[in-house]
Amino acid sequence: MRSVPEVAAAQRRWAKVARRAVRAGVEPERVFALAYAVVARWWDQALHWEREAVWPRRLHQVAGGNAGTELERWRIVGRDSAVFPEVVAVADALLDPAMAELAWTDSGAGRPRPLPADGAFCRRLGERAGRGWLGPLAATDYGSPLTSWMGAVIRIRRGAGGPPGYGNDPWWLRQEHQPATMAGQLRVLSKERSAPGSGTTWRSTVPAEQRALITSLVNDAEEQLTQLRGAQYGKTADAAQQLLGNLGHAATLIEQAARETAAAALAAGMALEDLARWARLPAEALAAHHNGRPGKSSEQVPGGRQVCTDRHPQGTTSSPRTRDQNP
To answer: Are 82 and 55 a contacting pair, CB within 8 Å?
Structure first.
């Protein structure tokens, strides 16, 4: 950590944030756990972030200067150290009543509206995390621990109840939002490396950025369907519009996830005929999608930056989708 002074500085700041949590009537451990889940999710998504430059540099510093050929392992063992400053910044922001007020304003306050992709809350949160460009990416990451926190804050202000099975405690961290542990990730990595031959496991043959894209598509589709709980009420036109709109979005996302999955499996050596049968899609369409994808010949580091054979960072990857969504 001697080469990463911002981590030690964040540790000193955390004591102040913890005291602030106590004054707000919240256990500091719960605040930290939620902020950690938010930032750990960003860490996984950063493989797609063209403008992310902090985490790649910091990870190499944690690794002693260069993660080298052990990049995937260092992304696991170095994650908690690399993201710690942002965790403290996010925890401090979520405890700030002014930030909760921004979330309330973004939701339309007394006149509910979908949360905008350019909302003031996520824009300000990105700035406090040292990334002024992060706002739209965080705002459109539906189904995340951050949007769950925002939804709870907004529902409390409106005096509304939470979704079935969920309360209105902003600091309650759902099980599905808890980040994968270092030990669990290392076990998976060890299993992949010890498997005989190449291409024997999904994670060993499909690049991390492509796996992250598939996961993001599935999560977004799930969020679209979750929004339909209780949608079959009210005026016929309103119910039909919401049902058809969300179902259409979900169908598009699921089809894209299926194509990305088939393309990844095809690149790993699976037979095109088998994939077409499993995906229930024409073989010609899968082949065209696969052939239209850009080549990936270099390793990925956090933030979507690549490491080529000479181990110097260069290049970027794709940018995420955006769309409006109800809180």
So the answer is: yes
60-64-67-70 Cα dihedral, nearest 10 degrees = -150
CB-CB contact of 248 with 201 (8 Å): no
Q: Please state, as a whole number, how many other Cβ atoms lie within 10 Å of the Cβ of residue 227.
A: 21
Instruction: Residue 209: name the closest of 69, 74, 65, 75 by CA.
Output: 75
The pLDDT tens digits of the residues spanning 88-121 come to 999 999 999 999 999 999 999 878 888 888 999 9
Cα torsion angle, 197, 201, 203, 207, sign: positive
Can you count the helices (H) and strands (E) in the chain?
15, 3
Over range 149-176, report the average pLDDT.
81
Pairing of strands 313-314, 306-307: antiparallel
Handedness of CA 189, 194, 196, 197 (dihedral sign): positive
Does the CA dihedral 158-179-83-295 come out positive or negative? negative
Any idea what DSSP says for residue 325?
A: B
Contact (Cβ atoms closer than 8 angstroms) between residue 49 and residue 304: yes
Q: 217, 205 in Cβ contact below 8 A?
A: no
Residue 269 Cα distances to 163, 259, 262, 299, angstroms: 43, 15, 11, 20
